[in-house]
Amino acid sequence: MNSSQAKKILIVDLLQTLNYKPTKETVREAWYLSPFRSEQTASFKVAKDKNLWYDFGAGEGGNILDLAQKLFHTSDLSETLKELDRVYTPFFSFHKQGEIFSKVPLKKTEDDSFSFEGGLTISGVEPLHSKGLFDYLKARKISTDIANFYLKEVTFRANGRDYFALGFINDKGGYELRNKYYKGCSAPKHYTRILLSHQPTDQINIFEGFFDFLSYLTYYDLEHPKKDTIVLNSLVFLKPILEITCRYQQVNLYLDNDTTGKEAVALFQNGINFAEQVYGNHKDFNEFLCSQ
Fold first, then answer.
1. I need a surface site. Which of 112, 142, 214, 288 has the fewest CB within 10 A?
2. CA dist., res. 171 & res. 51, Å (int)
3. Which residue would you say has higher pLDDT here, 162 or 76?
4. pLDDT in tens, 201-211
């Protein structure tokens, strides 16, 4: 990260990354309890439109580099940039990423997700680490431990920009990509199988999307499923998996509680609609989990 890149970071985003929350916020400014001392009344102001800060209690202020140097107790610019690069979410803050997603050309696909008109390229796959993604998981009540095991933080490039999202891998190496602002995938699109052994269990669980699967594990406090599992990642894979599911005595279906989901149950021999039994008054498993 160089100085020009660092100056594009919003001060409010850096403070959020470091767990400082405003006590008062408007479109143009945000007030905080000073990060440099204990106080009862907020005296630390951020001018959001100018991306500058001023600490009225100390009588000093400046830009994001000045603030970072004080926060990280660094002695020079090089060390300050290194610390910013270490703690700050790669590429764009979650807030900034949302603004960008709202402006780029997206097209809706048949599985109700969105794709970039120019396509996307995966540029990195890492363990989860960005605060924005953990906040998103928390908002959807997904266990952090479960998410850390099944998800990756995927960075990708589309339309000349870099983005990041939760990534759930499928059997062909593609990723389902989700964040607060975007629902899409990388090629190739496919379903995801989670098998307990080389021999099939008596039952198999079928989930429509990975948030339903993670919600199931979170709700029942399971580290891993106790039955073979398929996450469809799209209803277009319902018929292709019929040959797989016919090997099982019982097919447990956790699909959306809508007409399409209910009609899909009829496709499976020995299929049981657990959506009706478990979360019959909710759209899907995650909506049910969030209501608890």
1. 112
2. 44
3. 76
4. 799 999 999 99
Domains in the chain, number:
3
Neighbour-count burial of 74, counting CB atoms closer than 10 A to its CB (0-12 exposed, 13-18 middle, 19+ buried): middle
Domain that holds residue 170: 94-185
Task: Please name the residues in contact with 219: beta carbons below 8 A apart, sequence gap of 6 or more.
Answer: 285, 288, 289, 292
| Structure token digits, residue 284 | 């899907």
Classify 273 as helix, strand or coil: strand
Q: Which residues contact 224 (CB under 8 A, 6 or more apart)?
A: 149, 194, 217
Residue at which a domain ends, from 138, 156, 185: 185
Q: Rounded to two decimals, what is the model's pTM?
A: 0.69
107: buried, middle or exposed (CB in 10 Å: 19+, 13-18, 0-12)?
A: exposed
For 165-175, b/e burial (b = at least 16 CB within 10 A) is bbbbbbeeebb
